[in-house]
Automatic annotation (TrEMBL):
<dbReference type="InterPro" id="IPR013324">
    <property type="entry name" value="RNA_pol_sigma_r3/r4-like"/>
</dbReference>
<keyword id="KW-0804">Transcription</keyword>
<keyword id="KW-0731">Sigma factor</keyword>
<protein>
    <recommendedName>
        <fullName>RNA polymerase sigma factor</fullName>
    </recommendedName>
</protein>
<dbReference type="InterPro" id="IPR013325">
    <property type="entry name" value="RNA_pol_sigma_r2"/>
</dbReference>
<keyword id="KW-0805">Transcription regulation</keyword>
<dbReference type="InterPro" id="IPR036388">
    <property type="entry name" value="WH-like_DNA-bd_sf"/>
</dbReference>
<feature type="domain" description="RNA polymerase sigma factor 70 region 4 type 2">
    <location>
        <begin position="108"/>
        <end position="155"/>
    </location>
</feature>
<dbReference type="Pfam" id="PF08281">
    <property type="entry name" value="Sigma70_r4_2"/>
</dbReference>
<dbReference type="InterPro" id="IPR039425">
    <property type="entry name" value="RNA_pol_sigma-70-like"/>
</dbReference>
<dbReference type="InterPro" id="IPR014284">
    <property type="entry name" value="RNA_pol_sigma-70_dom"/>
</dbReference>
<dbReference type="InterPro" id="IPR007627">
    <property type="entry name" value="RNA_pol_sigma70_r2"/>
</dbReference>
<dbReference type="InterPro" id="IPR000838">
    <property type="entry name" value="RNA_pol_sigma70_ECF_CS"/>
</dbReference>
<keyword id="KW-0238">DNA-binding</keyword>
<feature type="domain" description="RNA polymerase sigma-70 region 2">
    <location>
        <begin position="10"/>
        <end position="74"/>
    </location>
</feature>
<comment type="similarity">
    <text>Belongs to the sigma-70 factor family. ECF subfamily.</text>
</comment>
<dbReference type="Pfam" id="PF04542">
    <property type="entry name" value="Sigma70_r2"/>
</dbReference>
């Protein structure tokens, strides 16, 4: 299909795919997965019918690629390991250290969730995808995404409260 260009999509969405894969795998070493994602997209470009947004389609490919790798290696022990952004600390160093400490505990809480809740937290909460985009990637209804997102946020809050990092209302 001439109307879709993998090169343009790479320019537009490579950063989003990389971010998703970093959060999803918990590793900074995702270059091969990013390349695989765009290679698979190139091979399947004729099957892309435009029913979803290209970014959503690419994230679905990336997600499926990771799941395939985990299945082959029988490793599904972690999905996210790093929530700390590349942004410099705002304010003084002490404030930055507190922010980093909070991210570490949030990461640990998310890591304790069931895989489907980890995925929805990453897609909705971290990557800020819409319910519709997330439902396309996870192959479920928007309503189910919203329910899972609400439940996952509640569970993360409970975990953080149990560990003494936030206090109940």
């Amino acid at each position: 299909m001439d109307e879709y260009s993998i090169e343009e999509w790479f320019q537009q969405y490579e950063r989003d795919i990389t971010s998703f894969l970093v959060y999803y795998t918990g590793s900074q070493e995702v270059e091969d997965l990013v390349q695989d994602t765009f290679l698979i997209a190139l091979q399947k470009l004729s099957k892309f019918n435009g029913a979803s947004h290209p970014k959503t389609w690419l994230i679905s490919i990336a997600r499926n690629r990771v799941i395939d790798l985990y299945r082959r290696k029988k490793v599904w022990e972690r999905i996210i390991n790093v929530l700390v952004t590349d942004q410099p600390f705002s304010g003084d160093i002490e404030q930055g250290m507190v922010k980093n400490f909070d991210h570490i505990h949030l990461n640990k809480a998310i890591h304790q969730l069931a895989p489907k809740y980890k995925e929805v937290i990453i897609l909705r909460g971290i990557l800020e995808l819409s319910s519709e985009e997330t439902s396309t990637i996870l192959h479920c209804s928007k309503n189910k995404v919203n329910v899972m997102y609400h439940r996952s946020l509640k569970k993360v809050r409970e975990i953080l409260e149990e560990e003494g990092f936030i206090y109940g209302r």
